[in-house]
Structure prediction request, 71 residues.
Amino acid sequence: MKILLISFTFLASLVVLSSAEQQHAKPVIVPGPGSENNLMSCNHKECVFSCRDKAWITGFCLFGKCYCVKI
Prediction:
Protein backbone atom coordinates (compact mmCIF):
# COMPACT_ATOMS: atom_id res chain seq x y z
CA MET A 1 0.00 0.00 0.00
CA LYS A 2 2.87 2.38 0.78
CA ILE A 3 4.39 1.66 -2.61
CA LEU A 4 1.16 2.74 -4.30
CA LEU A 5 1.07 5.93 -2.26
CA ILE A 6 4.68 6.76 -3.08
CA SER A 7 4.07 5.99 -6.77
CA PHE A 8 0.98 8.20 -6.84
CA THR A 9 2.86 11.06 -5.16
CA PHE A 10 5.70 10.77 -7.66
CA LEU A 11 3.32 10.73 -10.64
CA ALA A 12 1.38 13.70 -9.26
CA SER A 13 4.58 15.73 -8.96
CA LEU A 14 5.50 14.82 -12.56
CA VAL A 15 2.10 16.06 -13.74
CA VAL A 16 2.59 19.38 -11.94
CA LEU A 17 6.07 19.81 -13.38
CA SER A 18 5.02 18.95 -16.95
CA SER A 19 2.01 21.26 -16.73
CA ALA A 20 4.26 24.10 -15.65
CA GLU A 21 6.69 23.37 -18.47
CA GLN A 22 3.90 23.61 -21.06
CA GLN A 23 2.92 27.02 -19.67
CA HIS A 24 6.58 28.14 -19.65
CA ALA A 25 6.37 28.67 -15.90
CA LYS A 26 8.75 27.44 -13.29
CA PRO A 27 7.07 25.55 -10.47
CA VAL A 28 8.13 26.21 -6.92
CA ILE A 29 8.12 23.32 -4.46
CA VAL A 30 9.06 24.13 -0.87
CA PRO A 31 8.87 22.24 2.40
CA GLY A 32 5.49 22.86 3.94
CA PRO A 33 4.35 23.40 7.50
CA GLY A 34 5.47 20.68 9.87
CA SER A 35 8.05 19.35 7.41
CA GLU A 36 10.82 19.63 10.00
CA ASN A 37 9.36 16.56 11.68
CA ASN A 38 11.63 13.64 10.81
CA LEU A 39 9.01 10.97 11.38
CA MET A 40 7.90 8.96 8.37
CA SER A 41 4.31 10.10 8.76
CA CYS A 42 2.52 12.84 6.88
CA ASN A 43 -1.22 13.43 6.87
CA HIS A 44 -2.10 14.26 3.25
CA LYS A 45 -5.30 16.17 4.07
CA GLU A 46 -3.59 18.32 6.71
CA CYS A 47 -0.72 18.97 4.32
CA VAL A 48 -3.02 20.12 1.50
CA PHE A 49 -5.13 22.33 3.79
CA SER A 50 -2.12 23.94 5.47
CA CYS A 51 -0.53 24.71 2.08
CA ARG A 52 -3.77 26.16 0.72
CA ASP A 53 -4.12 28.31 3.85
CA LYS A 54 -0.79 29.88 2.91
CA ALA A 55 -2.06 30.62 -0.66
CA TRP A 56 -0.17 27.77 -2.34
CA ILE A 57 -1.89 25.66 -5.02
CA THR A 58 -1.66 22.34 -3.22
CA GLY A 59 0.49 20.18 -1.04
CA PHE A 60 1.70 16.60 -1.14
CA CYS A 61 3.51 14.17 1.14
CA LEU A 62 6.80 12.63 0.12
CA PHE A 63 8.90 10.44 2.41
CA GLY A 64 6.94 11.60 5.44
CA LYS A 65 7.35 15.32 4.79
CA CYS A 66 4.84 17.88 3.54
CA TYR A 67 5.69 19.95 0.45
CA CYS A 68 3.74 22.91 -0.97
CA VAL A 69 3.49 23.68 -4.70
CA LYS A 70 3.06 27.00 -6.49
CA ILE A 71 3.33 27.69 -10.23
Q: What stands out?
A: The mean pLDDT is 74. The CA atoms of residues 2 and 64 lie 11 Å apart.
